[in-house]
Write a structure and sequence with these properties.
By secondary structure, the protein is α+β, with helices and mostly antiparallel strands. 52% of the residues lie in helices and 16% in strands. Strands 2-7-6-5-4 form a five-stranded mixed β-sheet. Helix 9 packs across helix 13 and helix 16 packs across helix 17. The longest helix is centred in the N-terminal third of the chain and has 35 residues. The radius of gyration is 37 Å and the shape is rod-shaped. The N and C termini lie far apart (76 Å).
């Protein structure tokens, strides 16, 4: 190719880049096949003389021209209509004409027979096949004006429709972002525009968020391993890639860094509409990430949403397996164990610290902050391992990292689950074991339900209104006498050792006796009665549980 041709192509590419959104609107155009399928064209008996396999090329415009140097006026994607009156009798000029169409990236050449050629010129046909330019000949006289009017009307209608959709999406999604909606709400709006499920994945194709009609979304997530491989095969170099059956893959990036993809599983339709939806949705997601809550990454938010749903029981049973698998956790023949870490002090990066330990141990798990002072971990342990040993090792490593900062912590674990339906109960157990362990630390690095005993049971029932009534009945007169309540707590915690209680309370033994007698009189009990003393102890534990975290 000559230097002038290179310069001409560069100028055309610069021109296309200067038109905002044009790449997204390309799909709003017809293809060569679409033009040949229009009603007026059939009457002119079109024949595909060259490159029948390239009829899906997009047509940006129709251009009627008889000049042999028309290529210099093209910017690519045009369908050129000609009678070839200036090409007749000169095969070299016919070949050069087709080659210039190739350099100009014309969509196709339509040659009307009758005025200059009675049959298809063989030199043009061979050149078109060699250059990959579709050559269509019309065997009956064709009023080119009628064809250009119809095609241009369709093209302009498609462009205006795509521009209108682009404006509406930009306005709606920007308003949602500026109002501070969570990622899930924004994705639900994108799903509505896409006409099907929408899934945000990171670069490893792990699902970070999803939205859409429940049944369709469930089918996708259930087979996500297969679907993700099909999505990976679609990835192209452009910002938006179109796939079969209405699939759209949009690259997610900001500030020059790519962090994932948006995949829309919409209804098949116009390619231009799909490109616009993908591009506007990607822009909205990029803005949402930039405006995100305290710089938290979507990976953290996705793990937090899943673990919070598991802990609260809001996740539907049929959704568990697809969501856990899509989150990247192994699910085949695994044992799932939830663990909750509670530090005795502020640790801003507790989740990051736990994730580093998990990565060093090579443990498959999800970690997330489920409330300001607690980090939950869902472990997926292999069947041939020792779950107790892995849990103990993880707890020890986290304790060591926190101890190096001068911070103590407790870890509460639930029971191992072979099926995901049991995870809700196990998560509740882990949460309340960690809470109880915080009030009465266990001897080892990891607390289980058996370690927190009666204190754990009381904390589990602390929100029960019957328990509140029990506290009032047992401790009522002491609730307004905090000094006596504290003395009773000390007396019971020392095993009714009066000498130790007096030392802890910094009072004399005679003063202790007087206060214990006062407690008996106020409550109407005998502190020597074991059953009454046990009931009092349980009420005191319940009172402490309600005051604690």
């Amino acid at each position: 190719m000559c230097a002038g041709a290179h310069r001409g192509r560069d100028r055309r590419h610069r021109l296309r880049r200067s038109l905002p959104g044009e790449a997204e609107l390309d799909g709003a155009h017809l293809t060569v096949r679409d033009v040949l399928g229009l009603e007026p064209v059939a009457a002119w008996k079109p024949e595909i003389a060259a490159c029948p396999g390239r009829l899906d090329r997009p047509v940006r415009w129709l251009h009627v021209a008889e000049a042999t140097d028309v290529a210099v006026m093209l910017s690519g994607g045009e369908m050129v209509l000609t009678t070839g009156v200036l090409l007749a009798g000169d095969e070299r000029r016919q070949v050069e004409y087709v080659e210039s169409m190739q350099r100009a990236e014309a969509a196709a050449v339509v040659l009307g027979l009758g005025r200059a050629f009675r049959t298809t010129p063989e030199a043009m046909r061979r050149a078109a096949e060699r250059c990959g330019v579709p050559l269509i000949v019309l065997h009956r006289p064709a009023p080119f004006t009628r064809l250009t009017e119809e095609v241009h009307a369709r093209l302009l209608h498609g462009r205006f429709a795509a521009l209108d959709l682009s404006d509406r999406m930009t306005t709606a999604l920007t308003a949602l972002n500026l109002s501070g909606v969570p990622l899930q709400r924004l994705l639900e709006e994108i799903s509505a525009y896409g006409g099907g499920p929408a899934v945000v994945v990171n670069l490893a194709h792990r699902v970070l968020a999803s939205a859409g009609e429940r049944a369709a979304l469930g089918d996708l997530l259930r087979d996500w391993d297969l679907v993700s491989r099909q999505v990976a095969a679609l990835l192209g170099n452009g910002p938006v890639t179109l796939g079969p059956d209405g699939w759209v893959v949009a690259r997610l990036e900001a500030r020059g860094r790519q962090w994932g993809h948006l995949v829309l599983f919409g209804r098949p339709g116009a390619a231009g509409t799909a490109r616009v939806v993908g591009a506007r949705a990607a822009e909205a997601l990029a803005l949402h990430r930039l405006l995100g809550e305290r710089g938290r990454g979507w990976e953290e938010q996705a793990a937090e949403a899943l673990l919070t749903d598991l802990a609260s029981g809001t996740a539907r049973p049929e959704e568990l397996l697809p969501r856990v698998r899509a989150a990247g956790l192994p699910t085949g023949r695994r044992t799932f164990v939830p663990v909750v870490f509670r530090p005795r002090g502020k640790v801003a990066d507790l989740r990051e610290l736990v994730e580093r330990v998990l990565a060093e141990e090579g443990t498959a798990a999800l970690a997330a902050r489920i409330r300001p002072d607690a980090v939950a971990v869902l472990l997926s342990l292999p069947p041939d391992g020792d779950p107790e040993a892995e849990l103990h090792r993880l707890a020890v490593r986290v304790h060591e990292r926190l101890a190096a900062r001068g911070v103590a912590a407790v870890a509460g674990a639930g029971f191992g689950c072979a099926v995901l339906d049991e995870l809700h109960r196990s998560f509740l157990e882990a949460v309340h074991v960690a809470d109880a362990a915080l009030a009465s630390p266990p001897a080892g690095p990891l607390a289980r339900l058996r370690d927190v005993r009666l204190r754990g049971l009381v904390r589990l029932l602390r929100d029960d209104p019957q328990l509140q009534s029990f506290i009032e009945r047992e401790l009522g007169p002491l609730l307004d006498r905090p000094e006596l309540l504290e003395l009773l707590r000390s007396y019971l915690s020392t095993g009714r050792n009066k000498s130790l209680t007096a030392q802890e309370q910094h009072i004399s033994r005679p003063a202790l006796y007087r206060r214990l007698q006062c407690i008996e009189e106020l409550l109407g009990i005998d502190l020597a009665d074991l059953e009454q003393l046990t009931s009092l102890y349980v009420a005191l534990l319940a009172h402490d549980a309600q005051r604690g975290p």
